[in-house]
Structures are given as C-alpha cells and as structure tokens.
Amino acid sequence: MTGSEGIFGIITEAWVRLQHISIFTAQTVNFANWSDTVKACRALAQSGLNPSNARLFDNVESLSNGLGDGQHHVIIVGFEAHNHDIEPLMVEALKICKRFKGYYSSRPKTEERDEVANSWKRSFLQAPYLRDEFVRLGCIMKTFETAVTWDQFEVFHAGIITAAQGAINRICGEGMITCKFTHLYADGPAPYYRIIAKG
C-alpha cells in the first residue's frame, strides 16, 4: 500500500462491514427540449426526494452512452434503500419529469433497472477504453467539470458552448462539445463537458 509515510506497509488487522443489499429501481426519461430537461433536473434536485442517482445526458451524450438515438436528452433517475419502499419516491420523481414534458416507455419493477439504464452503466465502465481508441484515430477527447447555481446555469452553459465550439472550429477545424450532469444539488448542477475534435 502507499501512504504519506512511504510505499511499504503491513496490514495486521482488518474489519469487514456487512449490510443488507439495497432494493433499487432506475428509470430513464426522454426529453425533446434541452431547457425542459434542465428544469426537470432542478425540480428533482429541489424536491426533497433525494434520488440515489440522478443524471442528465444531452442528445449526443445519450447516443454515445447507449441511452437513445441521439434525438433526445435523457435523465436517469434511481432510488435505493434497504429499509423502506422506494416505489412512491419513483412515482413522484416521474410526475416531476412528466410536468416538464418528459416521457418513458415502460416502468421496471422494484429491484430492477430498465435495460437502457443498464446500457449506460456498461458504457460508463467502457469510457476510458473508448477514449483511448479515439486518440489512436487522431482525435482529441477531453473532459472538464464544474459547478454552478441553477439561476446562472443557462447563461453559463451558453457561454461555455460558444467559447469551446469557437476554439474547436478555429484550432481543430471540426469537432463538438457535449454536456451531462454528473450530480444534481439543490443549489445547482455539476455540468460535465466533453470535447471531441480532430487532433
């Protein structure tokens, strides 16, 4: 093991914590409009439902993560617990999404994830390998993440997209910038941007 005192250490004792496996449910919700998707995320974050997983993917990120056809923005929302029913929480979360024109095809049973959400999990684990393949093909793939309050997000996001796309066009000639929210907080999102461009 590596630590502040050096690179050698001997483990003489260890503890293992056991707990019941949580029940879980996860659902993907599609949106045609970016602004509606962001508003739904804000409402979810401020609802007090506290989902264990809530992520937004713009249409390009949703396509590259196996979440859709690239035409829609997607929210994944999930709940888990081992001591109380989570179905009512999911019902309320989906009501919020519907209020902002979100739609979904089917609902998984408790203790199941919808298959689209599972495909995201697989693509999440494969992402570093995909990035390496893009580099081998002569592309630049770089990410950066930040945080901003909800009331500032719209102007902030537009500025990031304009500046990044301008730099891509000027320096690389071709490329794109995508956005997803890796975390949602009551105060604001944590937007995560990805640049894919010719090297």
Notes on the protein architecture:
- The protein is an alpha+beta fold.
- The chain is 38% helix and 26% strand.
- The chain is built from 5 helices and 7 strands, in the order E-H-E-H-E-H-E-H-E-H-E-E.
- The chain has helices at 34-45, 59-64, 87-99, 115-136, 150-172, and strands spanning 23-31, 53-57, 73-81, 112-113, 139-145, 175-184, 189-198.
- The protein has a 7-stranded mixed sheet with strand order 4-1-3-2-6-7-5, sandwiched between helices.
- Strand 6 (175-184) and strand 7 (189-198) form a beta hairpin.
The amount of helix comes to: 25-40%
Radius of gyration: 19 Å
Please outline the major beta sheet.
7 strands, mixed
Shape: globular
SSE order in H/E notation? EHEHEHEHEHEE
How many strands appear in the DSSP assignment? 7
Average pLDDT number: 88
> What's the CATH class label?
Alpha Beta
Going across the major beta sheet, what is the strand order?
Answer: 4-1-3-2-6-7-5
Determine the CATH topology.
Vanillyl-alcohol Oxidase, Chain A, domain 3
Number of helices: 5
The CATH homologous superfamily corresponds to FAD-linked oxidase, cap domain/gating helix
Q: pLDDT under 50 segments (min length 5)?
A: none
Q: Proportion of β residues?
A: 25-35%
End-to-end separation = 38 Å
How many domains make up the 3D coordinates? 1
Content-based structural category: alpha+beta
Assign the CATH architecture. Answer: 3-Layer(aba) Sandwich
List the keywords.
199 residues; alpha+beta; 5 helices; 26% strand; globular
